[in-house]
Design brief:
The complex is a heterodimer of chains A (112) and B (114).
Chain A lengths: L3 E2 L4 E5 L4 E7 L4 E9 L6 E7 L4 E3 L3 E6 L4 E6 L8 E9 L6 E2 L3 E6 L1
Parallel strand pairs in A: 2-11
Antiparallel strand pairs in A: 1-3, 3-8, 4-5, 4-9, 6-7, 7-8, 9-10, 9-11
Chain B lengths: L4 E3 L2 E4 L5 E6 L6 E7 L5 E8 L2 E4 L8 E4 L6 E5 L8 E8 L8 E2 L3 E5 L1
Parallel strand pairs in B: 2-11
Antiparallel strand pairs in B: 1-3, 3-8, 4-5, 4-9, 5-6, 7-8, 9-10, 9-11
Chain lengths: 112, 114
């Protein structure tokens, strides 16, 4: 069936390190992907998105990479800070569908 | 510009009671989505509404759950005769009419069924 999943449930890094969070998706028809950050007790917060006609997109300290060949998505966070500690979700949808399918999430723990 | 608002933030109900969750979308947004999140899990789509219309309710349980988004006022997610398995965080998201897919989420309502 269609699914969006994450390889690692928890990622622990030191402050200042670069973090990489991975996501696999199985629906080849998906053409839009979003990364959300969710802090404890709060709703998901948009980080960055990418369309399937791109393989890389950069934001402030974050980069999303899309590999359509292997259906893989990653989020790179440069110079990780304690404030980046949260659960990160990838989500996807298909053209013509407005609903998002979420993965289970990866907990990012940043220690000083 | 206020973000998506949800209330109450926390709701406690006993089994068999009704739960009503409210969501006010961002200004200018006419599309509303409801998602449910169980502990340590991702969000699961429930229903997608536009003003006075249910567009997609494929994620809604067939019984006890209903949703509406009236012409005036907030969107309501209603759960009748709640059971312990309904305990979860319920998130509302909204998007503008010409959205490319991005949805903006509210802070959620945490429902606890005793």
């Amino acid at each position: 069936g269609e699914s969006v999943g994450l390889h690692l449930p928890t990622l622990s890094v030191q402050e200042g390190d670069n973090s990489i969070i991975n996501c696999a998706y199985s629906n080849s028809a998906s053409d839009y992907f979003i990364w959300y950050k969710q802090e404890s007790g709060k709703g998901p917060q948009f980080i960055i998105d990418i369309r399937s006609n791109m393989d890389k997109r950069q934001g402030q300290r974050v980069t999303v990479l899309l590999n359509k060949t292997v259906k893989h998505l990653s989020l790179q966070i440069a110079a990780t800070q304690p404030g980046d500690s949260a659960v990160y979700f990838c989500a996807e949808n298909k053209s013509g569908y407005s609903t998002l399918t979420f993965g289970k999430g990866t907990m990012l723990l940043v220690s000083p | 510009n206020a973000g998506v608002m949800q209330n109450p933030r926390h709701l406690v109900r006993r089994r068999g009671q009704e739960a009503r969750l409210r969501c006010s979308p961002m200004k200018g947004h006419s599309h509303v989505y409801w998602y449910r999140q169980l502990p340590e899990e991702g969000l699961k789509f429930m229903v997608y509404l536009q003003k006075e219309n249910i567009i997609d309710e494929s994620g809604m349980p067939k019984e006890r759950f209903s949703a509406e988004f009236p012409k005036e006022g907030p969107s309501i997610l209603r759960i009748q005769q709640v059971v312990r398995g309904d305990s979860a965080a319920y998130f509302c998201a909204s998007s503008p009419p010409a959205s490319h897919g991005e949805q903006f989420f509210g802070p959620g309502t945490r429902l606890t069924v005793l």
